[in-house]
Amino acid sequence: MRGIGETGWWLLNPNSDAPMTVAGLDKEQAEQLKHLLDQGYLEAPYQHTKEVLAFLLRTNARWGELEDYIEKAKALYQRVIADQQQASAEWKTAGNRDRDDLLAEFRRTAINSLEVRPYADLTVLLEDVPGDTTIDDLLLEQYGLEALQLYLRYVRPLNRVRLVSVDSRERSGFEQLVKLGLARRGTEIPVQDILEICTLKQLADLVTDLSAPPFRRKRTAIDYLTTLPDIEARLGRLVAFREVFQLLALPERFAHINLEELAQTWRHTHEVANLMHRTYVLGGSSAQRRTTFLAMTKGDPVYWTLLAGKDDMTCPCCQRAAEVGYRREAAPRLPLHVGCRCSVLPIVGTPPNSLKMSSTPPQCKLPAVTKSFSSIAPARTTTLLIDCQTETIQARKLSQHGKARFALPDGFEGTVEEVALHHYRQTGWHGVWGENHLWWMIMALLFWDVYFADVPDAWDPLMKKSGLQLDMPRDLFTPKFYERRKHLIADRIIALKQLDVCSELTRTYSAHVGTPCRPIEQWDKFSLKILQEIVSQVPREVFLSVLQRLLENFNRNRAGLPDLFLWKDGIQVWAEVKGPGDTLSVVQEEWLSFLHAQGGETRIIRIVDQHSPSPK
Question: What pLDDT score does 323 carry?
Fold first, then answer.
C-alpha cells in the first residue's frame, strides 16, 4: 500500500493486475482496508462482502476506479434514456404508472447499450446516489449490520405485511427484528393489515357460513370483516400467524433519519463492497497465477485464451476479447474492468490456425466522457490542528456492546453526543446536535437560487420533462458544481454580507418548504427558529466561509463538521464529541482546523468511563 503524491489517495494493491485506489481514509484506515481485502483470498465471498460493506458504512472511503466508471457510464446511460423518452410518442401522453413501466424498459436498453458492464446491479450503481454514510452509525451500533440490512431491504412500504415461511432463509432474520423491536408478528399486527395481503376470493371464503353481502371490492370486504367479533379466529384458518411479520418505524430518537435515502445508500454501498471484493481478489490471483505459470513453462510455447460468461450479463467488450487468443507476452490481466467475471486459460502449445491471435493484452474501457478520478482527486489540507481545547466529561458507561450509552451523575442517559449536549445545557449553554445536516440545510436555503440555477449541462431538459423528481443537479458531487457556479456563489456571498440573513432564511424556507432538495435530508429535522438562532449567533464571516467551503467541494467537505454547535453570552463553540478509544478522522481534523483558522472556537469533548483511567 502506498500513497499517491499528496492527493490523499491510497494504492492498496501495487502488485495486482487490478489497481485499486481509495480516498477519504487516513493511513491507519487504509491499512485496515487493505488487511480486510486480503482476507478475501481466504473467506467465502458472501461473508467477505459483508465485512467490506461494514467497513465502507463506517467510513467515507471512495474507490477511484469505480467512481471513474460510474461518472462515465452514468453520462452514457442517461443520454440513452433521454433519447428514448424523446423518441417515444407513448411517453409524452402516458400516465405515471405507464411511465414507470416505460422507464424500466428504457433503463434495460440503456444498460444493454454500455460496452462495459460490471457484474452488478447497474441500476443501483448508476441511479442510487449514495448519501452520508455516517448517519447510520448509531443504528449500526444499536441493531447490528445483518438486522439493519434486512430491515432496510423491506422498509418500503413500512406497513406492508409479509409472509415469511419457516423454510425461508430470511425467517431467522425477521424473528431477530421482532426481538429488536423493529418488527411485530402474528396477532400483534392489526387484523386489517393482514387482510390486505389476502385475495378477494380468500376474503370471501372467510365468511361462507354467513349471509354476507357479495364482495366486489377488497376495501369493502375488509371493512365488513373487521366488524366480525371472531375475525381473528377465522383468519387463523387461512393464515399461519407465526409466518406473518410487519416492520415497525424506528424509535423516536432516530426519527431524523430518512429511511428511503438510507436504504438507497446501503444498496449502493453493498454493490460497491461486492465489486471491491471481486476486483481485489481476482486482480491479485491473476497476477500470481500468471507469474507462476510463466516460471513453470520457460522455453515452452504458450498462449492464452479468455473465458467469458455465456449469459446476457457479460458485457460486449469481454465477449469480443474472448474471441481472440493472446501470445505469451500478451497475457490478459484480470479483471478487464471493474466487476469483470472473465477468467484466463493458459495453454502450453501452438495455437490453431483458426484462432485469431493478438500481441496486445485486452482492455475494456468506456470512452472518455469526463476527467478521470485521478485528475479531480481533492488535495489534502496541509493545515495542522492547533490550539483545539480538549474537555473531559466523566460518565458511567451503561453497556459494553453496541453503541455506547453513558449516564451522568444527575441521572441523564444517552449517547456521547447527547451526554455532552446535556452537560453544557446544565451550565447555561444553548446548543444543537447538528453535525453535517444542519449546515447542509442552511447552505441550501441561503443559496437556493444558486443550487437550482439553470446551469448548462446540470439539468437534463428531457429528464425534467419525464416527471422524475430532480432534487439535485447532476454535477453536485463533482468539482464542476463549483466551477460552473463560481460567479453566482461569489455574488450571493457579497449579497448575504449586506442582507438580514434571518429574513433571507425565512423567505426561502417559506417559499420552498417541502420541496425535494438533496442537502435537506428532512425539512422538519431543524425548525426555522433553530436555523435563525444559529445564523444569528455565528459571526457572519465565519458561517459564510463554512458555506463557501461546502459549495467549493460538496462531495469532499460534506462530512466531518463538528457534532455540536454551542453558544452562551456571545461565545460560540464548535465541538466534536468522542467516546472512549474514538479518534478524529481526517475530514474532522480538516474542519476543526479550518474553523480555527476562521476565528471560530473549537473544542474536542471526550466522554470517558468514570471507572477507567482518564486518557493522557
Answer: 93
CA distance 125 to 268: 6
**pLDDT value, residue 469:** 59
Q: Is 148 exposed, middle or buried, given 0-12, 13-18 or 19+ CB atoms closer than 10 A?
A: buried
Look up residue 498 and give its three cell numbers. Answer: 449586506
Degrees, nearest 5: CA angle 69-71-72: 65
Three-state DSSP class for residue 49:
helix
At position 145, the amino acid (one-letter code) is L
Q: Which of 207-215's residues contact partners 24+ apart within 8 Å by CB, and which partners?
A: 207/234
User: In which region does residue 5 sit, left (phi positive, over 0), alpha (psi from -120 to 50) or beta (all else)?
Assistant: left
B/e letters for 522-545, b = 16+ CB within 10 Å, e = fewer, are ebebbebeebbbbbebbeeeebbb
DSSP secondary structure string for all residues of 309-369: -SSTTS-HHHHHHTTSEEEGGG---S-SSTT---EEEEEESPPPTTS-EESS-----PPP-
3-state secondary structure of 502: helix
Q: Is 32 left (phi over 0), alpha (psi -120 to 50) or beta?
A: alpha
Rounded Cα distance, 24 and 63, in Å:
9
Q: Is the peptide bond before 157 cis (omega within 30 degrees of 0)?
A: yes
| Confidence at 612, pLDDT banded by 50, 70, 90 | low
Sheet holding 244-247, edge to edge: 161-163, 244-247, 183-185
H or E element, residue 147: helix 145-153
- DSSP letter at 120 equals S
Say which amino acid occupies 482. Y
Amino acid at 605: I
DSSP 155-176: -SSTT-EEE--TT-TTHHHHHH
Contacts of 172 (CB under 8 A, 6+ apart): none
Which single residue is written with the C-alpha cell 487468443?
A: 325
DSSP conformation class of 58: H
DSSP code string of 538-604: S-HHHHHHHHHHHHH-HHHHTS---SEEEEETTEEEEEEEE-TT----HHHHHHHHHHHHTT-EEEE
Q: Which of 79-83, 433-437, 453-457, 463-467 has the lowest mean pLDDT?
A: 463-467
Strands (DSSP E) found in 147-243: 161-163, 183-185
279/351 Cα distance (integer angstroms)? 29
d(CA 564, CA 574) in angstroms, rounded, equals: 6
Q: Which residue has the higher pLDDT, 92 or 194?
A: 194
Distance CA 173, CA 502 (A): 48
Distances (CA, A) of 385 to 192, 325, 499, 587: 59, 56, 33, 11
Give the span between the Cα atoms of 315 and 331, in whole angstroms.
20
Q: pLDDT at position 4, please? A: 44
> Which phi and psi angles does 557 have, rounded to 5°?
-95, 0
Q: How many CB atoms lie within 10 A of CB 284?
A: 21
* Backbone dihedral angles phi then psi of residue 24, each to the nearest 5 degrees: 85, 10
DSSP code of 384? -
